[in-house]
Amino acid sequence: MLVNLIADYGNGDPAFTEVTQRLSMGLPNAQIYCLSVPPFSTLATGFWIAQLGLNPGAENRLIYHNCAPRQDDSEPRIDNEGEGLTYALLPNGVKVVGVIAGYTLSFIKDYAEVIHSIKVSRAGSQFRSRDVFPIATIAIANGDFSLLGDELNPNQIPNVPGDRVAWVDGYGNIKTTISSDSLSLKPESKVVIRVGDVVSDAVYSDGSFKVPEGTLAFSPGSSGWDKNGQPLRWMELFLRGGNAWERFGKPRINQVVTILN
Fold it and tell me: For residue 125, what pLDDT is reported?
């Protein structure tokens, strides 16, 4: 089995090793790969759940995610209680287990065949993804669904906001939640983009490398998946020969992206 562990522990954080060790107790033959997202970034978590889960990969796959800002209740927490655990099954057989919080399930809610709550404690540890949740995750990975609770209505899950920074890759390219099919721009037309408080000219392109060196391109990126038999692509800001993230003042994930013209 291939397990993608997505969490906001931080790059190189030993928490990944602790959780991997706990999962390995019940899944000794699993290959576990870790992906760190920024602290409390449910948008980035949801984006990568979909990008990994809805695209081709190993036949036997599970995504275990943990990004739990504990923002579902502003009152003081008793016994470290937080958001609940859920299970989703994608059309390609990928199992998704993790905390429902913010946008964690927003990108997959319209694709999932089922979404259920999982009957495990929501409290008992500050480190629930290590101490509480692996038991249920291991059971589901092994085909035991006895802990599944009520089915969740996708309408109760927030929609993906269509104007945000979803991710910044290692080259400084800004992946957005603007879908390419939502735009009606002509190739090589000039656009004005604002990210956060910074505004810059860009060129709309149907391929990032079609623009000259030093030009900011606004183009369908490498991230996306099939939707109703058609490719869905998320728009990216790409500065050829430079760094778009730095051009826009190093914006955070979830900052608003606006097309001004």
Answer: 72
